[in-house]
Amino acid sequence: MEHINFLSPYKDFVVGVDTKVPLADQTFTTAINFDNAATTPPFDCVMNDLVEFSPWYSSIHRGAGYKSQYSTKLYEESRKIISSFIGADMDYHSIIFLKNTTEAINKLSNKLLALHKDGVVLSTCMEHHSNDLPWRNKYTVDYIAVDKYGELSMEDLKNKLISYGKKVQLVTITGASNVTGYINPIHEIAELVHQHGAKLLVDGAQLVPHGPVNMKPVEHPQHIDYLVFSAHKMYAPFGTGVLIGPKDTFRESPPDYTGGGTVQFVSHDHIKWLDPPEREEAGTPNIMGVLALSSAIKKLLSIGMAQVESYERALTRHAYESLSNIPNVELYTNKSHLHRTISIIPFNIKGLHHSIVAAALSKEFGIAVRNGCFCAQPYLQRLLNVSAEDSEEYMKDPTLPMPGMVRLSFGIYNSIEEINILTKALFHISRNRDLYLQKYNIQEI
Fold it and tell me: From the Swiss-Prot or TrEMBL record, what is one GO molecular function term (predicted)?
C-alpha cells in the first residue's frame, strides 16, 4: 500500500471538520464523517464564493438590470465549466440544471417517451432506486444480473442485448455502486450498447466526485450518451443536479414541467417553446446551487481528479485491511477488486443489527456512517441472500427489522487517523456485543 499522510492534506478545504458533537455520556468529541456517499460537507471556498456573490444575486434571464445580467452570465458560464469537467460538447449536448440526480433521471425517463415509448430499457440489479423506479411505469424494463460478488455481469448484458435485439433503446447503469463502490466499465459498456443500436445513460452520482470522468467525443464508439450527477455529493450544497444529453432528445416533446422560463411565445391558441436547455428549467433556477457546483468543480480540478481518486483509494485500502482484522466483521466488497472501487466499504458485525452498530458508532464515538439498504433494496437482497419468501414477510410486516449493512464512505478530507479511531471503536463494539444489544433497541433507533 502506498504511503499517505496520517492526516489529510485536504482537511482544511472543507467546512465543519472540527465540529464537536455530543456523546451518550454527555461529553463532546470531534465529529468524524464517514457518510460522504450520501452528502459531502461543503468546500470552504464554495461558501466564500457564494458570500462574495450574494450582493450581486438576482433573478437570471430576461432581466435588464446589471445584477440580473451579471447573474445570468455566471449561470451560463457554469455550463461551460461543467462541459469542460466531464468532456461534453456544448454544440451537441444540453446541460440542464435540476435539483439532484433523482430529478434528472425522472426528467430523462419522461423525455425519452417521445422517442422510445415501446422500447425496452435495460437497468441492472445493482442500481439505486432512482435509476430503477422512474423507468418501471413507462417502459418494458429488464435487469442485467450481478455475480456472487455483486459485480455487473457483462455476459448477461451481452445476452440481453442479443435477446431483445432492436427493442433495446436504452441501457441505464450506475457508474459506481453506492453500496459496494464497484466501478462499472462504462466506456466498454457504451461501445457494446452502441453496437446494438441503443444508447447509454450513466448515473454518475457516485462516480463523478471520485475520479476522472470523460464522456468522450460524440463520434467515438465509447461515447457516453447521457450523464447525470449531483452537486451535494461533491462538496457543493444548495441542491443542484445535472442532466447532460443530446439537444435533440429535449426538442422532441414539450417540457415535462411547464411555466415561466420555458417559452418563447404564448397566446391562448399557441405555444412556442424555448430551445433546450432553458425549456427544461421551469421557474426561477437555483443560481446559488449552480454557482456552488462550479466553485466545487474548480477546487476539485485544482487538486486533480486523478489525485482525488488515488488518495481516496489509499484510504479505502487501509480501512479494508483494518476492518479485516476485527473479529466478527463481515465485509461485502471483494478485496481483490479494490482497485476498481470508489471509496465505499459495506460491512456488518455478526450478531448485531446494522442499526445498532451505526447508533453505537454515533452515540459512543461521534462517528457518522449510514446503515440500511441505501435506497438499493434489490441489490442488498442479493448480496445478503434474502429469499423471495423472506421478502414477502417484510412486505407483510413493516415492524420486522429490515436486513441491511453499515456503509463507510470516504472523502478527500478524511484521514488515516480517523480510520484508526474507527477501527478501535469497532473492536470495542465487536468485543462487547452483549452490552450494545442491551443498550440499543432496534425498534427505537
Answer: cysteine desulfurase activity
Q: Select from 143, 111, 109 the least CA-distant residue to 127.
A: 143
Structural contact between residues 287 and 391, judged by C-beta atoms closer than 8 angstroms: no
Cβ atoms < 10 Å from Cβ of 381: 18
CA gap 214, 83 in Å, rounded: 10
Q: How far apart are CA 177 and CA 150, in angstroms?
A: 10
* Residue 2 pLDDT level (bands cut at 50, 70, 90): very low
Asked about 375 being catalytic, the answer comes back as: yes
Cell of 121: 430499457
Tens of pLDDT, residue by residue over 151-160, are 999 999 999 9
For 355-380, write each residue's pLDDT tens digit: 999 999 999 999 999 999 999 999 99
Domains, the chain, with CATH or none:
11-43+305-444 (3.90.1150.10), 46-301 (3.40.640.10)
